[in-house]
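Exam revision sheet. Question 4 asks you to relate a sequence to its structure. Input first:
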Amino acid sequence: MENQPAIGGVPLLTVDTLAELLQVSPQTIYYWVNRHHYQVKIRGTDGMWVTKVFDTKGEAKAFQNHTNCFKQDGGSVTSSANRITLDEYFQDWFRTIEHQASPGWRKCQRNFYGDYIKPILGHRKMKSITPVMVSEVLKEMIGQKKAEQTQLHIYFLMRKMFKDAIELYQMMHFNPVARTMKPKVPLIEARHLSLSQMIVLLSHVKDAEYGTAIWLQLYAGLRYGEVAALNWSDVDLERGTITVRRAFSKQDSWAKGTRIIKDYPKGLPKNKITFGRAAW
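Answer key, structure tokens:
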């Protein structure tokens, strides 16, 4: 124990010294706290100590062995979740996942977090957040009479944030956003125009500038964004086909402040629609 630190000539018992006395690796310290608890201290991959207390000796040893194996396999072990707040984590997480969402949805994520999640959880340390605290966010939304679909968006946003804290950042081992918290959104059958209603609509827009667009939506079942993104090169009059290759994105255009056309609508390379001769 050479060069052991001391105060007033009295040696200090450091973690490394304790490891030497216990004849264990200075990267892992395992000791009995009291008659009811056992504590494990493991040197994290960031150089900081990760401390966890268990009720039984077996649980403490199991955690120690599992964590050490995880480190040896190249995993990240850190106590950063004990130090940073959810608000600090969100700022970094939001930049990291930039490529995973469209500009429109990212703007919604930022607004959802700032309006609903941050006021309740933003100031709390990541590791201290429990399912009960998460449920307070959802309860507050119910109290404000927010739509079920909005509640569902907030639920998925929180679950995604903590899922990435576990899998991407490896700073947590437990997701406080439980599956049982998922808001139940009632299924509402889509309302469609009857044949007589479609005939009335087509007669009304027959000579209008947008009449052809309405006809395409009714006849081919195209969405507004798909019709808005069509070019003449997508139309084959000889074969009687229209190929849908792209779609106008209203949400992304709103977020970017300019007209945004996205390729491959509905996740498909293209959607070819064939019209009968009567349609021409």
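Marking note for examiners. The mean pLDDT is 79.
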